[in-house]
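Page 37, continued from 36.
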């Protein structure tokens, strides 16, 4: 047996087409969603991500601004830029690329972003809204995971889900979203005893730990859905996930590849959030 592949690239393209059509209709009414991306420093991986986000904006008809600041930018200057973007009517979403240089306090920066423009969903109020179940801007990667499950007919309702990893950007929020979708959720992590045994109970496995090929074939219940959020760059330059894809694909029912799985969905959900923020800003349902 061999797993069906969850093609994140293809699903992402379908959603982008939906967004593109909606943006075109909005622009007829004089509304153009706008995204500001802020990059501090010259981290090469971040440069690539920022370029991809700007490209997505262009492809989908969004207005976009990329602010590239030198690595030695002061926290005060960065906060002043965010303040300006918060007040800018043509900007509906603000994304400050993480990680930031050491001398800048991440929390101060995230807290400064207007909740209405928090398209990453990282602001404490957005996190609180997620916890309560209020309709808010959801963090992009977790929202992408849910979308992949739903669009392949793998609704989490009534399923047992095991999330490996408890980070603020993936593990915790994806667990809350799975719970909201009526899954029974276990959050496993580096201190969980008998991890393979715990994972073997799962109908849905979400791996988000950042350890290359951690999840093995004998951890997986036959037929389970395996979603790999890990993006690890090996010494060879190749990307690899947290799941040992080749062997796990032999037992899983469904599996996401890396690249081409969750990654493309992250940027697509960012676009969806920016569109949503623009509609809210203009009082459009
Ligand atoms: N404020 C903030 N928000 C973020 O959302 C954010 C961030 N900072 N910092 C960095 C991480 C990483 N991230 C990715 C987005 C897309 C792919 C993606 O499209 N990956 C492709 C492959 C890309 C490649 O080849 O390198 C794939 O998996 O198929 C990956 C990673 C967003 N991040």
């Amino acid at each position: 047996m061999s797993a069906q592949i969850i093609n994140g690239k293809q699903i992402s393209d379908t959603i982008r087409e939906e967004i593109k059509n909606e943006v075109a209709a909005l622009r007829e009414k004089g509304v153009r969603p706008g995204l500001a991306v802020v990059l501090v420093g010259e981290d090469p991986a971040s440069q690539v991500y920022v370029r991809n986000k700007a490209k997505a904006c262009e492809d989908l008809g969004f207005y976009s601004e990329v602010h590239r600041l030198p690595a030695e930018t002061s926290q005060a200057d960065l906060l002043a830029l965010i303040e300006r973007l918060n007040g800018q009517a043509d900007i509906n979403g603000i994304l400050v690329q993480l990680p930031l240089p050491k001398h800048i306090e991440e929390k101060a920066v995230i807290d400064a972003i207007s909740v209405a423009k928090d398209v990453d969903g990282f602001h404490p109020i957005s996190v609180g809204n997620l916890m309560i179940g209020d309709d808010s801007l959801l963090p992009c990667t977790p929202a992408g995971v849910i979308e992949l499950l739903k669009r392949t007919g793998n609704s989490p309702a009534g399923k047992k889900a095991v999330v490996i990893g408890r980070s603020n950007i993936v593990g915790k929020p994806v667990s809350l979203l799975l719970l909201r979708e009526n899954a029974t959720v276990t959050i496993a992590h580096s201190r969980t005893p008998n991890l393979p045994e715990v994972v073997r109970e799962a109908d849905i496995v979400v791996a988000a730990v950042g350890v290359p090929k951690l999840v093995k074939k004998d951890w997986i219940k036959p037929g389970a859905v395996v979603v790999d959020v890990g993006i690890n760059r090996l010494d060879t330059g190749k990307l690899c996930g947290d799941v040992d894809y080749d062997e796990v694909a032999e037992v899983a029912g469904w599996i996401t590849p890396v690249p081409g799985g969750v990654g493309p969905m992250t940027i697509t959900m960012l676009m969806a959030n920016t569109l949503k923020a623009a509609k809210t800003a203009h009082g459009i349902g």
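The mean pLDDT is 97. Flag for discussion at group meeting. The pocket of 5,10-Methenyltetrahydrofolate is lined by residues 48-49, 95-98, 120, 140, 231, 239, 258-260, 263-264, 266-267 (CB under 6 Å).
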